[in-house]
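Sequence design from tokenized structure. All designs in this work follow the same two-part layout: the structure record, then the generated sequence. An example of the structure record is given first.
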């Protein structure tokens, strides 16, 4: 079943804040899915439905996204990978209660890796799906020609003006804009459904959503994938859509050279979110990895 109609958010309190998550399955190994920027645990709805038959599956909404709390930055937490990693570690300990297989997509990969590096005991292994290369990061920009380094800082400065940032966010948080972005990210246009557009748009209407968005757009620090991959303490699988327009598979293949990576699997004809574009294929690969 591909829709989210039979998934009900459960609430876990973390640091006094409500955190939403979804759960499917009551037997087998534990799996925790971590979404990417602008998404939520429901982005894994098709994977929960498939793998929930053989695994205890959880999909969490990171702080600031989905149905989770969206406090103003700094009240009491900043939107950083260290914050999200701490959230993941606490969830594994308090809700799951056993080591998990962590599965991330895009920036969710970075948050998941940081969590495992911070607390190795939470994970049996980790799966990275089209990991974000974080091109807004200061160290990434430093490798670009000078004329390519200027755009992002200027945009970040402009968006720091509250009313400009609000207007920018309002333009993005429209069905037609979200659909256009998804059609760029997804190689399979048929996967860009009205249901998908709405599940991404709904949290954007929450109070505080614009502050979360702008806080992350201005976030140019923290770990990069190449910082975390060499020190991962568990076996690692990388999946990558060959048609990802945002994160090149050529760069992704460089990640496969790090020693924790046991497998690198290119997914032909898929884009930035293969788990949602072709859940049957991805679920099969995940099941083989989780339950060999």
């Amino acid at each position: 079943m591909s829709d989210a109609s039979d998934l009900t958010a459960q609430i876990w309190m973390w640091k006094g804040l409500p955190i939403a998550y979804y759960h499917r399955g009551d037997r087998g190994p534990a799996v925790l899915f971590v979404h990417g920027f602008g998404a939520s645990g429901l982005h894994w709805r098709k994977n929960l439905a498939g793998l929930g038959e053989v695994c205890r599956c959880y999909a969490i909404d990171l702080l600031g996204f989905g149905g989770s709390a969206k406090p103003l930055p700094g009240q009491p937490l900043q939107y950083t990978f260290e914050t999200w990693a701490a959230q993941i570690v606490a969830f594994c300990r308090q809700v799951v209660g056993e080591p998990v297989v962590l599965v991330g997509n895009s920036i969710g990969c970075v948050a998941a890796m940081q969590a495992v590096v911070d607390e190795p005991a939470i994970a049996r292994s980790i799966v990275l799906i089209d990991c974000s290369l974080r091109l807004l990061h200061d160290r990434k920009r430093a490798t670009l020609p000078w004329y390519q380094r200027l755009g992002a800082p200027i945009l970040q400065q402009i968006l720091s003006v509250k009313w400009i940032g609000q207007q920018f966010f309002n333009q993005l948080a429209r069905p037609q804009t979200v659909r256009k972005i998804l059609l760029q990210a997804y190689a399979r246009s048929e996967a860009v459904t009205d249901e998908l557009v709405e599940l991404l748009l709904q949290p954007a209407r929450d109070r505080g959503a614009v502050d979360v968005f702008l806080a992350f757009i201005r976030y140019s620090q923290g770990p990069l994938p190449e910082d975390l991959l060499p020190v991962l303490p568990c076996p690692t699988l990388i999946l990558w859509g060959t048609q990802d327009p945002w994160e090149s598979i050529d760069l992704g293949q460089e990640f496969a050279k790090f020693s924790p990576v046991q497998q690198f699997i290119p997914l032909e004809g898929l884009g930035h979110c293969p788990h949602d574009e072709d859940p049957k294929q991805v679920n099969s690969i995940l099941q083989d990895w989780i339950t060999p």
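The mean pLDDT is 89. We note this feature because it recurs in several other targets discussed in the main text.
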